[in-house]
């Protein structure tokens, strides 16, 4: 493959990553990507054949990395409270660095859950890891409120995601800039941690 071909492919992939993240899979067209890459649509189709192929080529490794970073925290041999607080901090910082990521992940989980689970390995890793067993042991010992990990994990993910899903609306309603929003978001994270600790852990 020539240098020009490599450069063209990279331009297309960079444009695809940006547009998919902004509009999601369903809201993106090959024409959108071609225009962002300043390349004609026929050439984009020539290199990548289909939107689906291009999507997974661009995002499979990114999604796997996101899932694996969460899994690494869940598998750490540390106390459950420290683990959950670390998970919240990690999710917050990841999404603060890229506010569009929350909606993107939610849309892809909804759009094609089977492909998402298979290509990222999220189901196997979560079920095979020690987090669920550790959580259940803490429940049985009476140190954690009697709630399942299956209920608790979506609660944690959902609370953090909602901060950034509602980012644009919050900035509009309260007339704040990005710096002021981030200050609000960090305080929101503190409240979430306090609420979860109060609910889950029996001191």
Automatic annotation (TrEMBL):
Keywords noted in UniProt: DNA-binding
Name the Pfam families for this protein: TetR_N
Point out the DNA-binding stretch(es): 29-48
| Matching InterPro entries | Homeodomain-like_sf (IPR009057), HTH-type_TetR-like_transc_reg (IPR050109), HTH_TetR (IPR001647), Tet_transcr_reg_TetR-rel_C_sf (IPR036271)
Q: Which GO terms describe its molecular function?
A: DNA-binding transcription factor activity; transcription cis-regulatory region binding
Q: In which organism is this protein found? A: Siphonobacter curvatus
Name of protein: TetR/AcrR family transcriptional regulator
Q: Organism's domain of life?
A: Bacteria
- What sequence ranges are listed for the domain HTH tetR-type? 6-66
């Amino acid at each position: 493959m020539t240098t020009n071909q490599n450069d063209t492919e990279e331009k297309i992939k960079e444009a695809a990553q940006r547009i998919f993240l902004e509009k999601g899979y369903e809201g993106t067209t090959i024409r959108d990507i071609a225009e962002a890459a300043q390349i004609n649509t026929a050439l984009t189709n020539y290199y990548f054949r289909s939107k689906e192929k291009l999507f997974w080529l661009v995002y499979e490794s990114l999604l796997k990395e996101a899932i694996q970073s969460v899994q690494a925290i869940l598998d750490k041999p540390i106390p459950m409270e420290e683990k959950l607080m670390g998970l919240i901090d990690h999710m917050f910082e990841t999404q603060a660095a890229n506010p569009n990521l929350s909606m993107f992940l939610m849309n892809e989980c909804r759009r094609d859950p089977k492909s998402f689970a298979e290509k990222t390995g999220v189901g196997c890793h979560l079920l095979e890891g020690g987090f669920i067993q550790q959580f259940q042991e803490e429940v049985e010992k009476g140190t954690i409120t009697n709630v399942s990990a299956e209920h608790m994990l979506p609660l944690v993910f959902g609370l953090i995601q909602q901060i950034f899903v509602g980012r644009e609306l919050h900035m509009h309603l309260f007339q704040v800039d990005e710096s002021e929003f981030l200050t609000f978001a960090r305080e929101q994270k503190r409240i979430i941690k306090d609420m979860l600790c109060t609910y889950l852990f029996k001191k």
